[in-house]
Design a protein that fits this description.
11 helices, Pantoate--beta-alanine Ligase, Chain: A,domain 2, binds pantoate, alpha/beta, 3-stranded antiparallel beta sheet, 9 strands, 306 residues, Rossmann fold, 42% helix, 6-stranded parallel beta sheet, 2 domains
Length: 306
């Protein structure tokens, strides 16, 4: 870290240090904006921190939490090998305007061991990612609720890349009246379209090339949106066919939903989501769709039915 960023950034390891770091902002009534992360920060996280800085303004405080949350990993998942890069993370936080980095140990977050009361994600937690990782979203929502409790932010910023996570956190904040504005920030991509993810570093060069099929599939699907959800899926499948046939990519799901992850609409706003494994690495991506150009066809069909 440069001397300038080191001088400005407070690194808090305990709840007490976090409270002390935020005391001046609380006293002045400035907004507090939280960016929850598991570290291994990349350019996508940097945009979240910059967005938080913008929202907090000069009088507010930007808190980035760096915590690899054991509760959201099932046995056999990558908890132990999840990348831990704290020095580099502090650099990113300092360079993009964070004031406080909260880096708690596991027993600071879960002092009594695993919590007995957790957040149940409801039906949305059991589909898509939740079907493959049944305990994942309870772990995510529980830690996010705890971070909201510890930081008391006015707003919290999450990436749209983990779209189902974002939808569930929105839902939790609304359903439990948590008083936190949940903001989704657009996905940041490599020059070849690959969505940035901390897990991309698990990919070897050949796998890294294979992984670009996901964003190509989403782009092809999006280009077919005027012809409706089925055409979107067909176009996306064409891009995945090669790596699927070679066995270098295993598709978990490719689906069109409405923006709240309900059934695909006939027209209007929708979401195209994909999850696949490349080697042992599970990759996710998604894009918004505009099926509104399909409205003409939809009206035609529904008028014909009357
Ligand atoms: O997206 C992540 O990095 C994590 O799931 C989150 C939201 C920080 C909770 O641990």
């Amino acid at each position: 870290m440069t001397a300038a960023t080191a001088a400005l950034l407070v690194v808090a390891g305990t709840r007490a240090e976090l409270a002390a770091a935020l005391a001046p902002t609380r006293a002045s009534g400035g907004p507090v904006v939280l960016v929850p992360t598991m570290g291994a920060l990349h350019e996508g996280h940097a945009t979240l921190v910059a967005e938080a800085r913008e929202r907090a303004g000069a009088d507010g405080a930007v808190v980035v939490s760096v915590f690899v949350n054991p509760l959201q990993f099932a046995a056999g998942e990558d908890l132990d090998r999840y990348p831990r890069t704290l020095e580099a993370d502090l650099e990113v936080c300092g360079a993009h305007g964070a004031d406080v980095v909260f880096v708690p140990a596991v027993d600071e977050v879960y002092p009594g061991g695993d919590p007995q009361v957790t957040v149940h994600p409801g039906p949305l937690g059991g589909v898509l990612e939740g079907a493959a990782r049944p305990t994942h979203f309870a772990g995510v929502l529980t830690v996010v609720a705890k971070l909201f409790g510890l930081v008391s932010p006015d707003a919290a910023i999450f990436g749209q890349k983990d779209y189902q996570q974002l939808a569930l956190i929105h839902r939790m904040a609304a359903d439990l009246c948590l008083g936190v504005e949940v903001v989704g920030a657009p996905t940041v991509r490599e020059h070849d379209g690959l969505a940035l993810s901390s897990r991309n570093r698990y990919l070897d060069p050949a796998q890294r090339r294979t992984a670009t099929a996901l964003s190509r599939a989403l782009a092809a699907g999006s280009a077919a949106a005027q012809d409706g959800a089925e055409a979107v899926l067909a176009a996306a499948h064409v891009e995945l066919a090669g790596p699927l046939a070679e066995g270098t990519l295993a598709l978990d799901y490719l689906t069109v939903t409405d923006p709240d992850l309900g059934p695909a609409p006939d027209h209007g706003a929708a979401r195209l989501l994909v999850a696949a494994r490349v080697g042992t690495t599970r990759l996710l991506d998604n894009v918004p769709l505009d099926l509104s150009a399909n409205l003409h066809e939809y009206l035609h069909q529904t008028q014909g039915a009357r």
